[in-house]
Amino acid sequence: MPGLPEQSQSPAASDQVADESGLQTERLLLRPWRIGNADDVQDLYRYAQDPEIGPSAGWAVHRSVQESAEVIDQVLARPESYALVLKETGHIVGSMSFKTPSNTVWPDGCTPDRTMGIGYWIGRPYWGQGLAVEAAKELLRHGFEDLGLSDIYGVHDVENHKSERVMDKLGMEWVRIAEHVRLPLLPGEVYRDQAIRCLIRRQWESRQS
Question: For residue 191, what are the β-bridge partners?
Fold first, then answer.
């Protein structure tokens, strides 16, 4: 792919809110990832090189800035995939997206019509601040109200207690354990047991009143 553009100064958070279409919460702007944007690339690489981030979410540590640029181009810059931008600073602090169910972890406790999965990660400097829950609540609202989804499911490694707590706070109910699931984005033959959680539209609606 072409060389990376020169690093620019991060735009003011207010400018990003005005210029980028996306979803918003009190502290966060959820907006599309930008192909070829040096600020997005540097923010992603800052977190993706941390071995505590990617492997727990099922993907490999990034080894270079160029690799992060390629991941934005080939993976993250797609519909319903959002960079989580902290309004106070204008910098990305994580990522969140909807994805189609896989055959391996199909949530059999959910109805098959209009079902999507939610995936997310937050950079380590921002752990423990409630940002994942805050962003996910807005994405759930978007999924049920704007996209008309009937169910939204989540998957986390059984040992990933941070993600487990996020899904607990979102009201996602336990469905089952998918055993010995292969994680193709990690090097080698890596298999893990994964917990399947699901939130049905009527359950979400009952909690909004």
Answer: 182
Give the residue among 167, 155, 183, 158 at the shortest CA–CA distance from 59.
183
- CATH number of the domain within which 162 lies: 3.40.630.30
The verdict on residue 7 lying in a domain is no
2 domain residue, yes or no: no
User: What's the distance, CA 78 to chain centroid?
Assistant: 12
pTM of the model: 0.85
Residue 4 placed within a domain: no
How far is the C-alpha of 24 from the C-alpha of 84, rounded, in Å? 9
64 burial (CB, 10 Å; 0-12 / 13-18 / 19+) is exposed
Residue 208: the pLDDT is 86
Quote the radius of gyration of the chain (alpha carbons, Å). 17
pLDDT in tens, 162-189: 999 999 999 999 988 888 776 666 667 7
Question: pLDDT tens digits, residue range 100-136?
Answer: 876 555 556 566 668 899 999 999 999 999 999 999 9
* Cβ within 8 Å of residue 165, ≥6 positions away: none
Q: Which among 202, 207, 208, 96 is positioned nearest to 154, based on CA atoms?
A: 96
Provide the terminal-to-terminal Cα distance of the chain, rounded to the nearest Å.
49
Residues of the domain holding 175: 13-206
Token pair belonging to 81: 């995939």
The total number of structural domains in the chain stands at 1
